[in-house]
Amino acid sequence: MTNSVTHSVLRDDINIILRAALSAVDPANAVAAHARRVGPALHFSDGFSRDLNDVDRIVLLGLGKAAVPMAQAILPMIADKPVQAIIATKYGHSSGAESLRAAKHLTLIESAHPVPDENSIRAGNAVWDALGGLSEKSLVIACISGGASALVAAPLDGIRLGTLRAINTALLASGADIREMNTVRAAIDRLKGGGLVRRAVPAQVVGLVLSDVIGDPLDVIASGLTNDPSAKNILVGNNTQACQAAARAAQQLGYAPRIVTTALTGEARTRGREIAMSARSGQLNLLGHAPGAREALIFGGETTVTLRGAGKGGRNQELALAAAIELDGATGEVCVASFGTDGTDGPTDAAGAIALPDTLARARAIGQNASAALDANDSYPFFAALGDLILTGPTGTNVADVVVALRG
């Protein structure tokens, strides 16, 4: 099999594995699996239920990159009641939101990620206002997903948008992990760190949470919007589910799969190099599989990038670029692909990228310098020139990242 044919097969396999991972964490299905309407009562998977005949007002919040499909799943269960819906999601992530018009009052706001903008403030104000003046008979259903930390902002008095943006930009450039970033965000915001729940008192708040954070900590996901002892929080989906589906798909394709970790962290370029070294050296064969077995290593989590240059890219593209440098000239069927499950890696329209043994050779042929691109954090144009970006468009879900290493 020629290299071009081999690489085409690897690309096809990566695409199948990626699609399987995304399908497993479809937000609408995830919500529907944890909430159902039976007669007048709304039942949740943790055993909690609420008789809607005893509810005078429902506030439905959809906050994050998966806000629209999560809210779409819950709205038919409550649409016969007075519902005020506030939906805040990322630009380009509100496709299909027309069905939310069933709410008696709907506010739909698209805002910026990962650095908040004016619409993030609008979204924060809308949520704050909607939660004011509720009663003990009121019910707040908060569909929370990753990205809400930037998409919904209610900064403390005295903190202007310019300052808020500067803080977020500095955090992103620092190499801080998501826990560290969201700890800072929660400290300067009225809604984060459980502020959403406190604002809604005395109403009951139920949080349906799609996790994009390693370990699923409620105080970190979306900066802990519903992290309060008085709130009912139900985890509806996470990165582990995506990785398990990726492993099943790899097995169906004839690979012997292994989920190495769902807690991948650290510098993207360092992890990319390490994963590629394992794949290139044949360390995948240390997994106890039969000699010559086709193998797949699955990693879930979220790496970080310390900005050194002014280029364009994201953590998944940077991981893939470092992997491509390590794979340069490797023999055999081997590749590394890294992608964000939300479909947008950093401030780009790509989910990630794929690295192959001939990536650098093809790059050199068109005047692209991989090392220079990595030094400048400029992975996006590098892979764009080669046609090796993973382009899914906004997926409607968000459970952090998945990295796949295949060896034939």
Description:
Helix content is 37%, strand content 22%. By secondary structure, the chain is an alpha/beta fold. It has two domains: 3-23 and 240-407, 3-Layer(aba) Sandwich (glycerate kinase, domain 1), CATH 3.40.1480.10; 27-237, Glycerate kinase, MOFRL-like N-terminal domain (Rossmann fold), CATH 3.40.50. A six-stranded parallel sheet has the order 6-5-4-7-8-9, with helices on both faces. Strands 10-11-15-12-13-14 form a six-stranded mixed sheet, sandwiched between helices. Strands 1-2-3 form a three-stranded antiparallel sheet, covered by helices on one side. Helix 1 (3-24) crosses helix 9 and helix 11 packs across helix 14. The longest helix is centred in the first third of the chain and has 22 residues, at 3-24. The chain is globular and about 65 Å long.
Beta-strand content estimate: 15-25%
List SSEs in N-to-C order: HHEEEEHEEHEHHHHEEHEHEHEEHHHEE
**What's the number of extended β-strand segments?**
15
The largest pleated sheet is described as:
6 strands, parallel
Structural class: alpha/beta
Number of domains: 2
| General shape | globular
Per CATH, the class of the largest domain reads Alpha Beta
Brief summary:
The protein has 408 residues and is α/β, with parallel strands linked by helices. The protein is built from 14 helices and 15 strands. It has 2 domains: 3-23 and 240-407, glycerate kinase, domain 1; 27-237, Rossmann fold (3-Layer(aba) Sandwich).
